Amino acid sequence: MAVKLFEPYAIKNVDIKNRIVMSPMCMYSCGNKDGIVTDWHKTHYTSRAVGQVGLIILEATAVTPQGRISPYDLGIWSDKHVDGLTELVQMMKAYGSTAGIQLAHAGRKAELEGDIIAPSPIAFNEKSKTPKEMSKIDIQETIAAFKLAALRAKKADFDIIELHGAHGYLINEFLSPLSNQRNDEYGGNPENRYRFLKEIITSVKTVWDGPLFVRVSANDYHPEGLTPEDYVQFAKWMKEQGVDLIDVSSGAVVPARISVFPGYQVPFAQEIKEKAHIDTGAVGLITSGLHAEEILQNNRADLVFLARELLRDPYWPRKAARELGVQIDAPKQYESGWN
Fold first, then answer.
1. 312: how many CB neighbours lie within 10 A of its CB?
2. 55 φ, ψ to 5°?
3. Selection from 302, 236, 307, 291 nearest residue 269 by Cα
4. Residue 167: pLDDT above 90?
5. 269: domain range?
6. Long-range pairs of 128-134 with CB within 8 A, sequence gap ≥ 24
7. pLDDT tens for each residue of 90-139
8. Per DSSP, what are the bridge partners of residue 160?
9. H helices within the chain, ranges in order?
10. Closest of 244, 243, 245, 248 to residue 231, by C-alpha
């Protein structure tokens, strides 16, 4: 039986050399608070490309200054960010990785001075700032910011864009009834709560024709919150709009106790894949090549996203290949010590 983890994955006009994805993880490393790529980013991401990760998706990259999680987040709200991002893309591609970027707005989870915004004026928890309810103008300006960010991502030569609709950030806040209590066309029933994401996708696709992913939190872990079944419907709508893959995570729209174990989110990816008939990515405590291969062999997802495991080991693909009994190409500089 062929090893699927190291099979290429083709999506639209992009060929990813294997099914291993570096999941977006915030680095909070823009020390000048300007959102511009630093030497840290170049070292961090390029080392995973050298390690043979197929697709590297940059951390949540803010589409507006107000949309940062922290003052130290990477940004794409200005043309000043494009040069640094372009250089970073070139460095990752030089070592064979496909380059992706996650476009994000933190919404009510922004930890910044000044006003923060959200669909409804509800704080995340008792320690958090109460956000300002977004006006229609705020909504349209934010949608426009996602579009401009996508255009900058295209100029920087990214291969894939992912919209961050998970983990309690702004898009997720609109989707969930726990954080969206609006009475207008952006709140209430599922169609209305989906409208903000729908309009972002529509706007982004006017300037972006490459692969488009959306990360979702497929379970709110709350009796009045969203479940994977709700996300099946959202995924069907996304597919109709031309989204290519759903990156399936969970939680964090409200404080919740979550029982975590290896692969705890994989069933959510499988349910969305099977019921919405769309490709999915699985993420969450996947640490071994055998586990990743099991997910793919059983068609539970199409890509395997790794986060903390790639922080621990930038060369995890080599370890997985050895575990699965296959040989992968080494960077020529490492050939003497690779196998």
1. 9
2. -130, 125
3. 302
4. yes
5. 9-327
6. 131/107, 133/182
7. 999 999 999 999 999 999 999 999 999 999 999 999 999 999 999 999 99
8. 100
9. 39-50, 82-94, 136-155, 170-175, 190-204, 228-241, 266-276, 289-297, 308-312, 316-324, 335-338
10. 248
pLDDT in tens, 175-210: 999 999 999 999 999 999 999 999 999 999 999 999
Position of tokens 């609006």? 182
With H, G, I as helix, E, B as strand and everything else as coil, classify residue 324: helix
CA distance 73 to 80: 15
pLDDT tens for each residue of 292-315: 999 999 999 999 999 999 999 999
How many CB atoms are located within 10 Å of the residue 95 CB? 17
256 lies in some domain: yes
Q: Is the dihedral of CA 53, 246, 159, 302 positive or negative?
A: positive
Q: Is position 339 within any domain? A: no
Mean pLDDT of all residues in 150-165: 98
Helix residue ranges, H only, 3-94: 39-50, 82-94
Q: pTM of the entire structure?
A: 0.97
20/176 Cα distance (integer angstroms):
30
What number of H helices and E strands is found in the chain?
A: 11, 12
Structure tokens at 82: 């494009």
What is the C-alpha to C-alpha distance for residues 257 and 315, in angstroms, rounded to an integer?
Answer: 32
Q: What is the reported pLDDT for 71? A: 97
Q: Are 74 and 30 in contact (CB under 8 A)?
A: yes
Tell me, what CATH number does 305's domain have? 3.20.20.70
Collapsing DSSP to helix, strand or coil, 2 comes out as coil
What pLDDT digit, counting tens, does each position of 41-99 carry? 999 999 999 999 999 999 999 999 999 999 999 999 999 999 999 999 999 999 999 99
**The length of the chain, given as a count of residues:** 339
* In a domain? residue 87: yes
Distance CA 117, CA 110 (A): 9
- Residue 337 domain-assigned? no
Structural domains in the chain (count): 1
Closest CA to 213 of 92, 77, 100, 307: 100
